[in-house]
Every structure is written in C-alpha cells, then in structure tokens.
C-alpha cells in the first residue's frame, strides 16, 4: 500500500508502512547508516503528516515484517487483544496521540489498553510526539512488578546496583556493592555483568551474591548474574540460587538468533527460573535488556528504522511477564545515536513506548566515550526520565563501568534524583535502609557510625 502527503506542491510517496514509519522518525545516525531515514526535514514532516492521518487499524492489516518470515511478528499478531483495541480502533495515529495526552487517558485506562496495542502502533504514535509529550504520557503509566520487593509504585525511583569488575574479582565486586548499598542503591536488582560467561564463574558469583544478601540482614532485593540464558539454565541444574533469568533481546527473529536465543529458549529459561519460587512478594523472574541499533548491527533489521525495531523487542519481553526491562540506550555507540540530543530523544521514546506496552521500564542513562555526548547530557536525560516516572536507572561507582567501558549514572546521581523530586526506593527496601540506620525516617541518607555494621558484616569482621 502506498502512503503519500503533499508539502508545497511536492507529493512525497512512501511505498509501504515500514518506509512511512522510518521516514517519520526524528533524525538519528543509525537510520541514516541503514539508508532508511528521511532525506530532508521536509520529507520527515510529510511522513509525519501521512502517519498522523493513518487509521490505527492499518497496523493489524500490514505487517512490517511478513508473518511467515518472523516469529516476533507472529507473537505480536497472535497475542493482540481486539477487545482491548476496540475503544481506539476508530482513531487515526494523530487522534491516538491526542487521546493519550487528554485527561481521558488515565493510568487505569492505559493499563486496560496495553494488550490492544502493537509495538508498531506505539512506535508510530511516539514519532508524532515532542519530548514533553513522551514525558507526559509515560508519567501516566504505572507498571508494578514484584519479586522480593515491590517496584514501580507512585513516587518511587529504583536502581540496579551494577558492581562490574574486569576480572570478576570478588573483592572488587564486594567493594562496589558495599558502596552502592551505603547510598541506598540496589532495590531493583544487584546485577553483575560477568567478565566471562562460563557456568562455574556464574555459579560462584550467584552464591556470593546470595550469601551476601542474606548476611546483610536479608536485604529485600533480588540478585542476578547477567550471563546468557543457557548459562543460567546450567547454573539452575547445578543448584545455584538464581533469582532472575537475564537475556538481551531484540525485535526480530534474526537479531534474537544473533543473541543465541529464540522464543522457545526464552520460555524454557522462564519456566525453569519460575519453578524455583524464590520470590517472597511476587514471582516475576525475567530481566531483559534491549537497545536501539541492535537489529541493524546484526543485519537483521529488515529495513525497519531502529526505533520501530526496538519497540518490537518489548513485545518479546511482555510475553514473559518480566520484573525488569532495561533499554541500554546509548551503549552501542554513535553509529546509532550520534550525540546527546539523539540519546536523550531515544531514551524518552523507549521509556514511553515500553510503559504503554505495560512493561516495568528502566533506562540505562549512558553513552560511550566516542559519542558526541557528556555527563551533562546524562544529567538532563536522568532528570527528564525521573520526572516521567522511569522504573529504574543504573548505579555504578563514579558512573564509570570499568568492565564494559562506558559511562552511566552513579550512586549519588540516583540520590540527586530522589531528593530533587521527593522519590523513594521500593517500600520493603526503604524499610530495610531505615531499620538498619542507613537512611532516616525522612528517606534521606544518614552518615556516621550507624553505618559501620554494614561494613563490618560484609567484610566478615
């Protein structure tokens, strides 16, 4: 089907839906690298106008990747709830944007709508939004998830404590964990990216994390070693204390194959981890990471723009009822998001689109050292996301990951956002912080001798 729009007596024609979505996307380097971006700002506006006039129902009749060729497409269409879609089925994409920004679109209404939305619908409407629109809509969406604590409640900002070490040295990892806990970090998860993805190393790290969590007066949080899901399955077979199964995923069958997974393998990992029943307040056991550009870097993007491919990954995540989903937004590099402006836009898009699809969405506010970005850009994105109700961010010593070699957010960055906006950690984790003298009853960090027990206990003194 052809789509068209005329600007100043020039008619722009878009051959199919995926071309229309790509041309309507705000400028970014990855789409230019892939050759799918609008050639001019005028063409981009023409595509956005044509997209605004597009009936929402078209997304159910024209797949951007054929149903027969891609299992993610089959998952999207087979799981679509037409009854949930019915209230907005008569709208155009532009009308849908207006609806999302209206007072009618409350948190309860959006929660009921999520299974009626496809990723392409959500990606499409986001392309018509300004940054303030993305923030406004995301802030309406409340997505709660539970394992050993409750994540995603109103007035909460959670953190993943990320104690990575270039050699998986237990002493270095332990030092980072202690540092993070003293700043109130780690309620979303204490999660390590292992330097080596081997079963013995993963099992050793899992035991160390679980023993530390129990020794420190049963911290009400969850731990995770972010190894490949096949490694996690082998660790479970060996009796390792696995709280969450982790996997990087993408929005096409091809990119998932490049990660060494498919939907069947994800299901196997989900069921094996769920069977352990290690949660106390809930049993949501999956942790997924995504990022714009992964499909293009794997040459598995099917000429989709990178943002549409990214949002399709959220349909994969949604199928497994995750505790956490994280877009590592600036991690892949400037080939895909060139500068701070593009990273900020992409982070707001990913958060809003994930929330609309019902996901407990976190953002790794990050950049690589060869991108045209700096920590001021990250401060801006962090503040905007915290205002928009982001579920969680990263907490790293000094905001510098010494193993993965990229820049993110620090423990004190999370404190800044919580203090500025009056946000708190997960309620169970907050109680642990207060009961153990790390935070005061006002939710603010305490200093002094009351914190010495944590150091002594963690170091076995």
From TrEMBL:
<comment type="pathway">
    <text>Amine and polyamine degradation; ethanolamine degradation.</text>
</comment>
<comment type="subunit">
    <text>The basic unit is a heterodimer which dimerizes to form tetramers. The heterotetramers trimerize; 6 large subunits form a core ring with 6 small subunits projecting outwards.</text>
</comment>
<feature type="binding site">
    <location>
        <position position="297"/>
    </location>
    <ligand>
        <name>adenosylcob(III)alamin</name>
    </ligand>
</feature>
<comment type="function">
    <text>Catalyzes the deamination of various vicinal amino-alcohols to oxo compounds. Allows this organism to utilize ethanolamine as the sole source of nitrogen and carbon in the presence of vitamin B12.</text>
</comment>
<protein>
    <recommendedName>
        <fullName>Ethanolamine ammonia-lyase large subunit</fullName>
        <ecNumber>4.3.1.7</ecNumber>
    </recommendedName>
</protein>
<feature type="binding site">
    <location>
        <position position="193"/>
    </location>
    <ligand>
        <name>substrate</name>
    </ligand>
</feature>
<dbReference type="InterPro" id="IPR044941">
    <property type="entry name" value="EutB_N_sf"/>
</dbReference>
<comment type="similarity">
    <text>Belongs to the EutB family.</text>
</comment>
<dbReference type="GO" id="GO:0031471">
    <property type="term" value="C:ethanolamine degradation polyhedral organelle"/>
</dbReference>
<dbReference type="GO" id="GO:0009350">
    <property type="term" value="C:ethanolamine ammonia-lyase complex"/>
</dbReference>
<dbReference type="GO" id="GO:0046336">
    <property type="term" value="P:ethanolamine catabolic process"/>
</dbReference>
<dbReference type="GO" id="GO:0031419">
    <property type="term" value="F:cobalamin binding"/>
</dbReference>
<keyword id="KW-0456">Lyase</keyword>
<feature type="binding site">
    <location>
        <begin position="160"/>
        <end position="162"/>
    </location>
    <ligand>
        <name>substrate</name>
    </ligand>
</feature>
<dbReference type="InterPro" id="IPR013785">
    <property type="entry name" value="Aldolase_TIM"/>
</dbReference>
<dbReference type="InterPro" id="IPR010628">
    <property type="entry name" value="EutB"/>
</dbReference>
<keyword id="KW-1283">Bacterial microcompartment</keyword>
<feature type="binding site">
    <location>
        <position position="247"/>
    </location>
    <ligand>
        <name>adenosylcob(III)alamin</name>
    </ligand>
</feature>
<feature type="binding site">
    <location>
        <position position="364"/>
    </location>
    <ligand>
        <name>substrate</name>
    </ligand>
</feature>
<keyword id="KW-0170">Cobalt</keyword>
<feature type="binding site">
    <location>
        <position position="289"/>
    </location>
    <ligand>
        <name>substrate</name>
    </ligand>
</feature>
<feature type="binding site">
    <location>
        <position position="403"/>
    </location>
    <ligand>
        <name>adenosylcob(III)alamin</name>
    </ligand>
</feature>
<dbReference type="InterPro" id="IPR044939">
    <property type="entry name" value="EutB_dom_2_sf"/>
</dbReference>
<dbReference type="GO" id="GO:0006520">
    <property type="term" value="P:amino acid metabolic process"/>
</dbReference>
<feature type="binding site">
    <location>
        <position position="194"/>
    </location>
    <ligand>
        <name>adenosylcob(III)alamin</name>
    </ligand>
</feature>
<dbReference type="Pfam" id="PF06751">
    <property type="entry name" value="EutB"/>
</dbReference>
<keyword id="KW-0846">Cobalamin</keyword>
<dbReference type="GO" id="GO:0008851">
    <property type="term" value="F:ethanolamine ammonia-lyase activity"/>
</dbReference>
<dbReference type="GO" id="GO:0005829">
    <property type="term" value="C:cytosol"/>
</dbReference>
